[in-house]
Amino acid sequence: NFMLTQPPSVSESPGKTVTISCTGSSGNIDSSYVQWYQQRPGSAPTTVIYGENQRPSGVPDRFSGSIDSSSNSASLTISGLKTEDEADYYCQSYDGTTVVFGGGTKLTVL
Amino acid sequence: EVQLVESGGGLVQPGGSLRLSCAASGFAISSKYMTWVRQAPGKGLEWVSILYAGGITYYADAVKGRFTISRDNSNNTLYLQMNSLRAGDTAVYYCARDFPPGGVYGMDVWGQGTTVTVSS
User: Which residues of B74-99 are buried (b: 16+ CB within 10 A; e: fewer)?
Assistant: First the structure.
């Protein structure tokens, strides 16, 4: 079964840039789009990146997504970090008709 | 306003059943792909099931044969019938709407979640 692996946690200082990786277990990660969701404690997830690096309305352009086919991985980059960006982030893609989530990464902004 | 509101969660004994509801407003669920996602306490997101606009359904292996996703177009409500519940099904259950066309761009609208606890 296709799996997505994320680092359990990352941390960075306000104003800096952080990148969260999402590595596919097999195949080509670019065969389906990779989405990214933000989840703050006690809240439902919200989408920050979908499709080919698209941002829903209201998501600042500090958030961007990319694919690196050579490493079979996707990345979420957040620039100009703010304390409000502190949250769990999940990548998500598809394995045929199955929806696959990464294990999540806890971003600490300190 | 586009909104999803889940209900029906609660405490149930192992082996029991529960039906979750997800009332949609601001759009017609009959024209969208709709998904159930769950999150066990302190854990990550886990996909449960998807219902295509055309009526096709798919399930995660962990719930296949025990859970059934369905919808009532007249009430604009999505359901998740959960049978033979196990302790491992304990989680917050979210319903979500897919970005159009569905099954490609993930979920764009999420409900607030309903909590299911399976325990004796």
Answer: eebbbbbebeebeeebbbbbbbbbbb
